[in-house]
Amino acid sequence: MHTEDDMGGTGTGTDTGGAGTPARGGAERPGPEAADPMVSVRDVVRTHGDGPAAVRALRGVSFDVPRGELVAVRGRSGAGKTTLLNLIGGLDRPDAGRIVVDGVDLAGLGEKRMARLRRDRIGFVFQSFGLVPVLTAAENVGVPLRMRKVPWREREERVDLLLALVGLREHAAQRPGELSGGQQQRVAIARALANRPSLLIADEPTGRLDARTRETVMDLLRAVVDGEGVTVLMTTHDGDLQARADRVFELRDGLVVEDGAPPEREAGTPPREADGA
Fold it and tell me: What is the CATH number of domain 66-94+111-265?
Protein backbone atom coordinates (compact mmCIF):
# COMPACT_ATOMS: atom_id res chain seq x y z
CA MET A 1 0.00 0.00 0.00
CA HIS A 2 1.12 3.53 -0.73
CA THR A 3 0.98 6.13 1.99
CA GLU A 4 0.03 9.75 1.47
CA ASP A 5 3.74 10.58 1.33
CA ASP A 6 4.25 8.32 -1.71
CA MET A 7 3.83 9.91 -5.12
CA GLY A 8 1.14 7.43 -5.93
CA GLY A 9 -1.19 8.31 -3.07
CA THR A 10 -2.78 11.62 -2.25
CA GLY A 11 -5.29 10.49 0.32
CA THR A 12 -8.11 11.74 -1.88
CA GLY A 13 -9.34 8.41 -3.18
CA THR A 14 -8.26 9.23 -6.71
CA ASP A 15 -5.44 6.70 -6.79
CA THR A 16 -5.93 2.99 -6.75
CA GLY A 17 -4.96 1.89 -3.29
CA GLY A 18 -3.97 -1.73 -3.87
CA ALA A 19 -0.97 -3.29 -5.49
CA GLY A 20 1.01 -0.93 -7.62
CA THR A 21 2.35 -1.45 -11.10
CA PRO A 22 6.02 -0.92 -11.98
CA ALA A 23 6.71 2.51 -13.41
CA ARG A 24 8.73 2.81 -16.59
CA GLY A 25 11.38 4.37 -14.38
CA GLY A 26 11.43 1.30 -12.11
CA ALA A 27 9.68 2.69 -9.00
CA GLU A 28 6.33 1.22 -8.05
CA ARG A 29 3.41 3.50 -8.61
CA PRO A 30 -0.34 2.84 -8.56
CA GLY A 31 -1.93 1.39 -11.65
CA PRO A 32 -4.97 3.37 -12.83
CA GLU A 33 -7.40 1.53 -15.02
CA ALA A 34 -6.40 1.74 -18.67
CA ALA A 35 -9.71 3.44 -19.45
CA ASP A 36 -8.99 6.24 -16.95
CA PRO A 37 -7.80 9.43 -18.65
CA MET A 38 -4.19 10.52 -18.27
CA VAL A 39 -5.45 14.00 -17.43
CA SER A 40 -8.83 14.99 -16.04
CA VAL A 41 -9.67 18.69 -15.67
CA ARG A 42 -12.93 19.71 -13.99
CA ASP A 43 -14.33 23.23 -13.56
CA VAL A 44 -10.87 24.81 -13.32
CA VAL A 45 -10.68 28.55 -12.69
CA ARG A 46 -7.51 30.66 -12.64
CA THR A 47 -7.32 34.44 -12.26
CA HIS A 48 -4.15 36.48 -12.54
CA GLY A 49 -3.93 39.67 -10.47
CA ASP A 50 -6.45 41.37 -8.20
CA GLY A 51 -9.06 44.07 -8.35
CA PRO A 52 -10.02 45.88 -11.55
CA ALA A 53 -6.83 44.72 -13.31
CA ALA A 54 -7.52 41.03 -12.64
CA VAL A 55 -7.49 38.75 -15.70
CA ARG A 56 -9.59 35.59 -15.50
CA ALA A 57 -7.46 33.31 -17.67
CA LEU A 58 -9.59 30.17 -17.17
CA ARG A 59 -13.31 30.36 -16.41
CA GLY A 60 -14.36 26.83 -15.55
CA VAL A 61 -12.50 24.54 -17.97
CA SER A 62 -13.36 20.82 -18.11
CA PHE A 63 -11.94 18.14 -20.42
CA ASP A 64 -10.12 14.78 -20.42
CA VAL A 65 -6.90 13.68 -22.13
CA PRO A 66 -7.03 9.92 -22.89
CA ARG A 67 -3.96 7.78 -22.31
CA GLY A 68 -1.65 7.16 -25.24
CA GLU A 69 -2.91 10.01 -27.43
CA LEU A 70 -1.45 13.15 -28.98
CA VAL A 71 -3.80 15.93 -27.92
CA ALA A 72 -3.56 19.53 -29.13
CA VAL A 73 -4.95 22.67 -27.51
CA ARG A 74 -5.49 25.52 -29.94
CA GLY A 75 -6.61 29.11 -29.44
CA ARG A 76 -5.52 32.68 -29.96
CA SER A 77 -2.88 34.35 -27.82
CA GLY A 78 -4.35 35.17 -24.42
CA ALA A 79 -6.91 32.36 -24.58
CA GLY A 80 -5.39 30.65 -21.53
CA LYS A 81 -3.42 27.83 -23.19
CA THR A 82 -0.13 28.28 -21.34
CA THR A 83 -1.95 28.89 -18.06
CA LEU A 84 -3.74 25.58 -18.56
CA LEU A 85 -0.52 23.67 -19.25
CA ASN A 86 1.16 25.21 -16.20
CA LEU A 87 -1.71 24.03 -14.01
CA ILE A 88 -1.70 20.50 -15.42
CA GLY A 89 2.08 20.33 -15.06
CA GLY A 90 1.95 21.38 -11.42
CA LEU A 91 3.81 24.64 -12.07
CA ASP A 92 0.84 26.67 -10.81
CA ARG A 93 -2.28 26.09 -8.72
CA PRO A 94 -5.91 26.73 -9.75
CA ASP A 95 -8.16 29.06 -7.79
CA ALA A 96 -10.96 26.49 -8.06
CA GLY A 97 -11.66 23.15 -9.70
CA ARG A 98 -9.90 19.80 -9.80
CA ILE A 99 -7.00 18.39 -11.85
CA VAL A 100 -6.01 14.70 -11.83
CA VAL A 101 -2.81 13.60 -13.60
CA ASP A 102 -1.99 9.90 -14.01
CA GLY A 103 -4.37 9.03 -11.19
CA VAL A 104 -3.06 11.68 -8.80
CA ASP A 105 -5.26 14.55 -7.58
CA LEU A 106 -2.93 17.56 -7.64
CA ALA A 107 -4.87 19.29 -4.88
CA GLY A 108 -3.62 16.64 -2.46
CA LEU A 109 0.07 17.33 -3.11
CA GLY A 110 2.41 19.55 -1.13
CA GLU A 111 5.37 21.18 -2.83
CA LYS A 112 7.76 18.24 -2.32
CA ARG A 113 5.33 15.67 -3.71
CA MET A 114 4.40 18.00 -6.56
CA ALA A 115 8.09 18.30 -7.46
CA ARG A 116 8.39 14.51 -7.36
CA LEU A 117 5.39 14.15 -9.67
CA ARG A 118 6.95 16.55 -12.17
CA ARG A 119 10.30 14.77 -11.97
CA ASP A 120 9.00 11.20 -12.27
CA ARG A 121 5.84 11.38 -14.38
CA ILE A 122 5.82 14.56 -16.47
CA GLY A 123 8.21 15.74 -19.17
CA PHE A 124 8.22 19.37 -20.34
CA VAL A 125 9.12 20.79 -23.76
CA PHE A 126 9.19 24.57 -24.16
CA GLN A 127 9.15 26.77 -27.24
CA SER A 128 12.46 28.33 -26.09
CA PHE A 129 14.09 24.87 -25.74
CA GLY A 130 15.40 25.56 -22.22
CA LEU A 131 18.77 23.84 -22.71
CA VAL A 132 21.79 24.63 -20.51
CA PRO A 133 24.23 26.46 -22.85
CA VAL A 134 27.45 25.16 -21.26
CA LEU A 135 26.40 21.50 -21.38
CA THR A 136 26.65 19.20 -24.39
CA ALA A 137 23.57 17.63 -25.95
CA ALA A 138 24.28 14.40 -24.07
CA GLU A 139 24.79 16.23 -20.78
CA ASN A 140 21.54 18.17 -21.23
CA VAL A 141 19.62 14.95 -21.85
CA GLY A 142 21.23 13.42 -18.78
CA VAL A 143 20.29 16.22 -16.36
CA PRO A 144 16.99 14.62 -15.18
CA LEU A 145 18.80 11.30 -14.65
CA ARG A 146 21.50 12.97 -12.56
CA MET A 147 18.79 14.57 -10.42
CA ARG A 148 17.43 11.10 -9.71
CA LYS A 149 20.95 9.79 -9.00
CA VAL A 150 20.69 7.15 -11.72
CA PRO A 151 23.94 5.11 -11.86
CA TRP A 152 26.48 6.31 -14.42
CA ARG A 153 26.35 3.31 -16.75
CA GLU A 154 22.55 3.21 -16.81
CA ARG A 155 22.46 6.96 -17.36
CA GLU A 156 24.89 6.79 -20.29
CA GLU A 157 22.92 3.99 -21.92
CA ARG A 158 19.63 5.88 -21.56
CA VAL A 159 21.11 9.09 -22.96
CA ASP A 160 22.57 7.24 -25.95
CA LEU A 161 19.24 5.55 -26.65
CA LEU A 162 17.34 8.85 -26.50
CA LEU A 163 19.76 10.70 -28.74
CA ALA A 164 19.43 7.85 -31.23
CA LEU A 165 15.63 8.11 -30.96
CA VAL A 166 15.69 11.78 -31.94
CA GLY A 167 18.36 11.23 -34.61
CA LEU A 168 21.16 13.15 -32.87
CA ARG A 169 23.56 10.50 -31.61
CA GLU A 170 26.37 11.95 -33.75
CA HIS A 171 25.78 15.40 -32.15
CA ALA A 172 26.11 14.16 -28.55
CA ALA A 173 29.24 16.22 -27.82
CA GLN A 174 27.94 19.50 -29.29
CA ARG A 175 26.62 22.35 -27.18
CA PRO A 176 23.27 24.09 -27.90
CA GLY A 177 24.97 27.03 -29.63
CA GLU A 178 26.45 24.61 -32.15
CA LEU A 179 23.06 23.10 -33.03
CA SER A 180 20.22 24.37 -35.22
CA GLY A 181 16.88 25.33 -33.67
CA GLY A 182 15.33 22.05 -34.76
CA GLN A 183 18.21 20.06 -33.32
CA GLN A 184 17.93 21.93 -30.03
CA GLN A 185 14.21 21.14 -29.84
CA ARG A 186 14.93 17.47 -30.49
CA VAL A 187 17.48 17.49 -27.65
CA ALA A 188 14.81 19.10 -25.45
CA ILE A 189 12.36 16.33 -26.35
CA ALA A 190 14.99 13.67 -25.57
CA ARG A 191 15.62 15.33 -22.20
CA ALA A 192 11.89 15.40 -21.47
CA LEU A 193 11.75 11.63 -22.09
CA ALA A 194 14.77 10.82 -19.92
CA ASN A 195 12.81 9.71 -16.85
CA ARG A 196 10.24 7.76 -18.90
CA PRO A 197 7.34 10.11 -18.15
CA SER A 198 3.71 9.12 -18.52
CA LEU A 199 2.81 12.59 -19.82
CA LEU A 200 4.75 14.95 -22.10
CA ILE A 201 3.62 18.59 -21.96
CA ALA A 202 4.75 20.73 -24.90
CA ASP A 203 4.06 24.48 -25.15
CA GLU A 204 4.21 25.56 -28.82
CA PRO A 205 6.95 23.00 -29.61
CA THR A 206 7.23 24.09 -33.25
CA GLY A 207 6.60 27.80 -32.76
CA ARG A 208 10.19 28.91 -33.49
CA LEU A 209 10.99 26.43 -36.23
CA ASP A 210 10.93 26.62 -40.03
CA ALA A 211 8.54 24.48 -42.07
CA ARG A 212 10.98 21.64 -42.76
CA THR A 213 12.11 21.41 -39.13
CA ARG A 214 8.50 21.58 -37.89
CA GLU A 215 7.78 18.43 -39.89
CA THR A 216 10.71 16.62 -38.24
CA VAL A 217 9.49 17.57 -34.76
CA MET A 218 5.92 16.58 -35.67
CA ASP A 219 7.17 13.16 -36.80
CA LEU A 220 9.06 12.77 -33.54
CA LEU A 221 6.10 13.68 -31.33
CA ARG A 222 3.91 11.27 -33.25
CA ALA A 223 6.54 8.53 -32.86
CA VAL A 224 6.79 9.18 -29.11
CA VAL A 225 3.06 8.53 -28.78
CA ASP A 226 2.82 5.58 -31.17
CA GLY A 227 6.11 3.91 -30.28
CA GLU A 228 6.79 4.85 -26.66
CA GLY A 229 3.20 4.91 -25.37
CA VAL A 230 3.62 8.40 -23.91
CA THR A 231 0.63 10.75 -23.77
CA VAL A 232 1.41 14.14 -25.33
CA LEU A 233 -0.53 17.31 -24.48
CA MET A 234 0.57 20.36 -26.45
CA THR A 235 -0.50 23.86 -27.33
CA THR A 236 -0.02 24.95 -30.91
CA HIS A 237 -1.07 27.43 -33.57
CA ASP A 238 0.31 25.07 -36.22
CA GLY A 239 -2.53 23.72 -38.36
CA ASP A 240 -0.39 20.87 -39.69
CA LEU A 241 0.50 19.75 -36.18
CA GLN A 242 -3.16 19.95 -35.13
CA ALA A 243 -4.02 17.75 -38.12
CA ARG A 244 -1.71 15.01 -36.82
CA ALA A 245 -3.19 15.03 -33.33
CA ASP A 246 -5.66 12.40 -32.15
CA ARG A 247 -7.95 15.13 -30.89
CA VAL A 248 -8.01 18.92 -30.66
CA PHE A 249 -9.44 21.19 -27.99
CA GLU A 250 -10.04 24.88 -28.62
CA LEU A 251 -9.79 27.45 -25.83
CA ARG A 252 -11.58 30.73 -26.30
CA ASP A 253 -11.76 33.41 -23.62
CA GLY A 254 -10.81 30.94 -20.92
CA LEU A 255 -13.34 28.25 -21.88
CA VAL A 256 -13.17 25.04 -23.91
CA VAL A 257 -15.54 25.77 -26.79
CA GLU A 258 -14.73 22.84 -29.07
CA ASP A 259 -13.20 19.40 -28.86
CA GLY A 260 -12.97 16.34 -31.04
CA ALA A 261 -10.92 14.65 -33.73
CA PRO A 262 -8.77 16.75 -36.07
CA PRO A 263 -10.84 18.12 -38.95
CA GLU A 264 -9.46 15.94 -41.74
CA ARG A 265 -10.44 12.85 -39.72
CA GLU A 266 -14.07 13.94 -39.93
CA ALA A 267 -15.70 12.97 -43.20
CA GLY A 268 -12.56 13.78 -45.17
CA THR A 269 -12.85 17.52 -44.70
CA PRO A 270 -9.67 19.60 -45.09
CA PRO A 271 -7.83 20.84 -42.00
CA ARG A 272 -8.89 24.11 -40.41
CA GLU A 273 -6.66 27.13 -40.70
CA ALA A 274 -4.59 27.74 -37.58
CA ASP A 275 -5.44 30.79 -35.47
CA GLY A 276 -3.23 33.79 -35.69
CA ALA A 277 -0.63 34.49 -33.02
Answer: 3.40.50.300
